[in-house]
Amino acid sequence: MDLGLTGKKAIVCASSRGLGKGCAQALAEAGCDIVLNGRTEAVLEETRKEIRDRYNVSVLSIAADVSSPEGQRALLSACPDPDILVNNNGGPPRRDYTELDREAMLDGAIQNFVTPVELIQAVAPGMKERGFGRIVNITSLSVKMPIEGLDLSSGARAGLTAFLAGVCRQLAPHGVTINNLLPGKMDTDRLRGGFERAAQQTGTSLDDIRAQQAAEIPTGRFGNAEEFGQACAFLCSRYAGYITGQNLLMDGGLYPAAF
Questions:
Q1: Which end of the chain is more exposed for a tag (fewer CB within 10 A), N or C?
Q2: Element (H or E) spanning 99, and its range?
């Protein structure tokens, strides 16, 4: 399917690996020129070459912390007029709410609430002028369903969701959409790290932990970055101009609800 994205420019935050990389790959496959972002230059450069060589599109890489003003300036200098913005950032480490001090809470809010809002503020005016824009925020299943130890991440991402529910309707008349992708248990480094912690705490093998958690999901498996990225690309496509303000769960049916 031609998504109508050939020649469009996309900034994909935190995209050197994992779900962000999946989004960058899918957008490149659809014909977008890509600006990648990550903190580890070697990994970022490897991803840049992989995507450039595979899809024959322009791929720039910006090694920076996207939560910092300097990092944001670097991204926007590389691509001052993006057609697509994919907001993504690492979440706060798993921690009981009793262990969170003010500094940790402020850091979490900056990572998962303030940063995406700042980037949207920067790119939305140009999108409005051009009459086209696609903004996709990678949030989490935890926005809808509590996950033990991820209260700070859940709160910041839920706040972002509520904040943008009004903003997206201001931008909709100008051809600019804002939607959220909510990953459940995806086969990423973060999920595997959780398996390792659970194995250490319980004395259960990694294989058993993995099998137990997969069995809790109606599809019987974890999601992957490729299918996640393709969903992102569709939300950015010409066919998704009538979709805005929505939260697309990608969790294999783990969240039990009719609506």
A1: C
A2: none
Q: Which domain holds residue 143?
A: 9-186+225-250
Same domain, 241 and 117: yes
Bridge partners (DSSP) listed for residue 133: 176
CA-based R_g, the chain, Å: 18
- Indicate the residue type of 198: A
Answer yes or no: do 118 and 203 share one domain.
no
Say if residue 233 is in the same domain as residue 155: yes
Q: Distance of CA 148 to CAs 8, 139, 152, 173, Å?
A: 39, 16, 10, 39
**How many Å apart are CA 26 and CA 231, to the nearest integer?**
9
pLDDT one digit per residue (tens) for the chain, 259 residues: 899 999 999 999 999 999 999 999 999 999 999 999 999 999 999 999 999 999 999 999 999 999 999 999 999 999 999 999 999 998 888 899 999 999 999 999 999 999 999 999 999 999 999 999 999 999 999 999 988 889 999 999 999 999 999 999 999 999 999 999 999 999 988 788 778 888 888 888 888 889 999 999 999 999 999 999 999 999 999 999 999 999 999 999 999 999 8
Q: How many domains does the chain have?
A: 2
CA separation for the pair 236, 87 (Å, rounded): 13
Give the alpha-carbon dihedral of 159, 160, 163, 169, to 10 degrees: -140
- SS3 (DSSP) at 176: strand
Other CB atoms within a 10 A radius of the CB of residue 188 amount to 21
